[in-house]
Amino acid sequence: MPRAFDTREQTSIRESLQEAGARLFRAKGVLKTTIDDLASAAGVAKGSFYKFYDSKELLFFEILEGLHERLRAPLLMANKDARSRRHFEKLLRKLLLQISDEPLILFMGREDELQAVLRRVKPERLRDHERKDQAFIDNLIASWTDRKAPPSRDVVAARLTAVLLVCLRRDFVGKRLFPLALDAGVESLANCFFEPE
User: Which of 31, 113, 172, 176 has the fewest CB atoms within 10 Å, counting from its CB?
Assistant: First the structure.
């Protein structure tokens, strides 16, 4: 009977699976990456993979959630003295450019990849992810609003969604129009928090 992994081994294996997953998913996407690929790249047995994740899609989702947190953090940790419209626009533009260049996120702009992940992630986990998105927007509103009345969460969410779709479909928007669409999205979001210039 195989022995159980101790806490240190569990942490190490989970980190190896996440690193291998991020590398493989960036290169091939979720659909073309197999459990065998992931286990081999992480240096673990295929059976060990299933001790940590029920599916490759759940591994992908966990990696994606961690990436979201890391990319969003600068917008929430900005120095209070630097919270100007210009600084907000600079941080937001940087975030959006990172998103538009990140294969892990861009794969979610493909319907087949998105549906593959959504089929395997439990509804309660998706609801938890949605709550995190709402908390992020609430924190943006609390941190950045420099208007008499704060914007509604729905207005910020709608504008953020619109500019994220531009980033996800950068190829469709085209090289010539993408910078203009990005600028329009950044300005629209900044107008939620600051008086229009």
Answer: 176
Cα 185 from Cα 170, distance rounded (Å): 13
Which pLDDT tens digit goes with each residue over 21-42? 999 999 999 999 999 999 999 9
Q: DSSP labels for 121-178?
A: S-HHHHHHHHHHHHHHHHHHHHHH--SSSPPPHHHHHHHHHHHHHHHHTHHHH-TTTH
Pick the CATH number of 1-53 from 1.10.10.10, 1.20.1250.20, 2.40.128.270, 1.10.10.60: 1.10.10.60
Domain map (residue ranges) of the chain:
1-53, 55-193
pLDDT in tens, 37-47: 999 999 998 98
